[in-house]
């Protein structure tokens, strides 16, 4: 089963912009890319979703190149409270079963 | 307030004693799902439901049962819990699982310990 690939961990200083890239080579025509944030012992929380080009909301931006085989979550000016695990999720081919990858553990350093 | 609720939030039980973890959503979502999360193994889907009376296995269904008699409720049943089912459990719901409306809303989690 095709799945997403993202770095296991990243460190960043407060105030920096953080970019987390996810690879999803087998993405199908109708698939959307969804990113979640999870704090310890809490359920994942939806951050942003996109299909192509660029999507921006109040917390993040999502960049998707034309071939859609990867996507980059961009968090502007991170703070300590952004320390969390970030998951990239693609439901390949509209598959009903959901498979989360390992996620990227972001540690923001003062 | 739109939300997914789970009960209980914490449970300590003994091997073999049947238990049910309830999940309810108030968003009229079609898709509901149960996950377990263990250190180093991430989130793994146990069961999911596309709609009332429609359920199917996720990646780790052994030892669990579910039912979807009403749209809003999706209980997780452990008929004979064992220590390897000690975990953090999350229920989630979404309007759909395909296309642009597939963002899932997660409950607060249920921490289960089976002795």
Helix content of chain B: under 10%
- Biggest β-sheet of chain A, characterized? 5 strands, mixed
- Helical residue percent band of chain A: under 10%
Beta-strand percent range of chain A: over 45%
Largest protein interface? A-B, 23 and 28 residues
Main sheet: strand order of chain A: 1-9-8-3-4
Indicate the structural class of chain B: mainly beta
Q: Spans of chain A of 5+ residues with little confidence (pLDDT < 50)?
A: none
Write the topology of this structure.
The complex is a heterodimer of chains A (110) and B (115).
Chain A: E1 9-13, E2 18-23, E3 33-38, E4 45-50, E5 53-56, E6 61-64, E7 70-75, E8 84-90, E9 104-109
Parallel strand pairs in A: 1-9
Antiparallel strand pairs in A: 2-7, 3-4, 3-8, 5-6, 6-7, 8-9
Chain B: E1 4-7, E2 10-13, E3 19-25, E4 31-38, E5 42-51, E6 54-57, E7 65-66, E8 76-78, E9 87-94, E10 105-106, E11 110-114
Parallel strand pairs in B: 2-11
Antiparallel strand pairs in B: 1-3, 3-8, 4-5, 4-9, 5-6, 7-8, 9-10, 9-11
Write up this protein.
The complex is a heterodimer of chains A (110) and B (115). Chain A has 110 residues and is mainly β. Chain A has no helices and nine strands. In chain A, a hairpin with a 6-residue loop joins strand 3 (33-38) and strand 4. Chain A starts with 8 loop residues before the first strand and ends with a strand. With 115 residues, chain B is mainly beta. Chain B is built from no helices and eleven strands. Chain B has strands at 4-7, 10-13, 19-25, 31-38, 42-51, 54-57, 65-66, 76-78, 87-94, 105-106, 110-114. In chain B, the strands form two sheets. In chain B, strands 2, 4, 5, 6, 9, 10 and 11 form a seven-stranded mixed beta sheet that branches. In chain B, a hairpin with a 3-residue loop joins strand 4 and strand 5. The interface between A and B is medium-sized, with 23 and 28 residues.
């Amino acid at each position: 089963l095709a799945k997403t690939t993202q770095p296991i961990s990243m460190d960043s200083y407060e105030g920096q912009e953080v970019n987390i890239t996810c690879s999803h080579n087998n993405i199908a025509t109708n698939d959307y890319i969804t990113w979640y944030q999870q704090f310890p012992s809490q359920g994942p929380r939806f951050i942003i979703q996109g299909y192509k080009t660029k999507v921006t909301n109040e917390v993040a931006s999502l960049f998707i190149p034309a071939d859609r085989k990867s996507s980059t979550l961009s968090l502007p000016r991170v703070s300590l409270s952004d320390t969390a695990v970030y998951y990239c999720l693609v439901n390949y081919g509209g598959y009903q079963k959901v498979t989360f990858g390992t996620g990227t553990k972001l540690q923001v350093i003062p | 307030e739109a939300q997914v609720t789970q009960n209980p939030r914490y449970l300590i039980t003994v091997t073999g004693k049947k238990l049910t973890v309830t999940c309810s959503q108030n968003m009229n979502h079609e898709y509901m799902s149960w996950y377990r999360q263990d250190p180093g193994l991430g989130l793994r889907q146990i069961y999911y439901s596309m709609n009332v009376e429609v359920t199917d296995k996720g990646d780790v269904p052994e030892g669990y049962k579910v039912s979807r008699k009403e749209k809003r409720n999706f209980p997780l049943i452990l008929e004979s819990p064992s220590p390897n089912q000690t975990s953090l459990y999350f229920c989630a719901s979404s309007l759909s699982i395909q296309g642009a409306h597939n963002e899932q809303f997660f409950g607060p989690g249920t921490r289960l310990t089976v002795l």
